[in-house]
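Field log, afternoon session.

UNIT: design team B
ACTIVITY: writing a sequence onto a fixed backbone
BACKBONE:
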């Protein structure tokens, strides 16, 4: 089923907290799209990215990307634009300890045990939130705060929500998902250890790179995920190794809080996490989506 969203009244758009301003109906067709958000010579816009690799065109979407989009008629060569974070999220919900091998590597890490309580895999998803002010797009520098001596990469599959929802069953999760993108759950590891909870260590500005775009038609059950630091592979796994899959994650989170269009869920990182230093470049690649690359710098 394809989600079709229609504004019921004028307001500030679909990214406001009051989801009652949006009405939804279901259509029988399925639209397969690569959705992005760009800065062009004419301003910022949501777009459909079309065409062959290296020769893509960005077609401007009127208003927002939820449901069946309408187009303004304007387009640009993608190479003449700058990719931004592909979505505007009211919140970013994250899953911790969701790959067994990552749990095992952290089980021997005193810093991680101190902040999570144990080195064992959780029976239920462990959730935490990053502020939406942590979101950045491709090629935007990750800024290491002066207050941290260790800032780590964590490559992750990101879910993008497509409609307001609450109490969604795992079997119905696909009906509320707009698509998938690539995320990096950047973490100040020393602050995670020191605080005993994760808000400061995970929540700094620039600590949630997202991009390069959203794939709306993708089976997330068995995708390769790979993180490289200066071209050296540091993480390599598959989403089939998730302890809690996409459906379980959406069911668990939506039992706690209302999810709004554009909200992002980071599904957890595999083994191989490690520190990044100023001057390095980190890239996360997910099969079927693409590569998200960000340089690393020290905050001035």
């Amino acid at each position: 089923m394809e989600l079709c969203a229609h504004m019921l009244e004028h307001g500030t758009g679909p990214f406001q907290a009051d989801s009652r301003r949006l009405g939804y109906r279901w259509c029988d067709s399925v639209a397969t799209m690569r959705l992005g958000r760009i800065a062009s010579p004419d301003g910022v816009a949501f777009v459909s990215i079309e065409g062959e690799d290296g020769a893509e065109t960005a077609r401007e979407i009127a208003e927002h990307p939820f449901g069946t989009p309408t187009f303004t008629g304007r387009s640009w060569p993608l190479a003449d634009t700058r990719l931004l974070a592909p979505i505007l999220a009211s919140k970013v919900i994250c899953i911790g300890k969701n790959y067994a091998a990552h749990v095992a590597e952290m089980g021997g890490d005193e810093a991680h045990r101190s902040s999570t309580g144990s080195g064992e895999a959780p029976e239920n998803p462990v959730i935490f939130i990053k502020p939406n002010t942590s979101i950045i797009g491709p090629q935007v520098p990750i800024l290491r705060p002066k207050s941290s001596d260790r800032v780590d990469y964590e490559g992750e599959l990101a879910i993008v929500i497509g409609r307001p929802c609450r109490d969604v069953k795992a079997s119905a999760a696909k009906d509320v998902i707009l698509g998938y993108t690539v995320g990096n759950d950047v973490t100040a590891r020393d602050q995670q250890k020191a605080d005993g909870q994760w808000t400061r260590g995970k929540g700094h500005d620039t600590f949630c790179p997202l991009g390069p775009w959203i794939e709306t038609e993708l089976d997330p059950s068995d995708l390769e995920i790979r993180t490289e630091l200066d071209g050296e592979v540091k993480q390599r796994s598959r989403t089939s190794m998730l302890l809690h899959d996409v459906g379980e994650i959406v069911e668990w989170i939506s039992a706690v809080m209302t999810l709004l269009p554009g909200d992002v869920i980071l599904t957890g990182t595999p083994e191989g996490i490690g520190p990044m230093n100023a001057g390095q470049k980190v890239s996360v690649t997910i099969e079927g989506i693409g590569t998200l690359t960000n340089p690393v710098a020290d905050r001035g």
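LOG NOTE: Residues 1-30, 110-116 have pLDDT under 50 and may be disordered.
NEXT ACTIVITY: expression trials, pending approval
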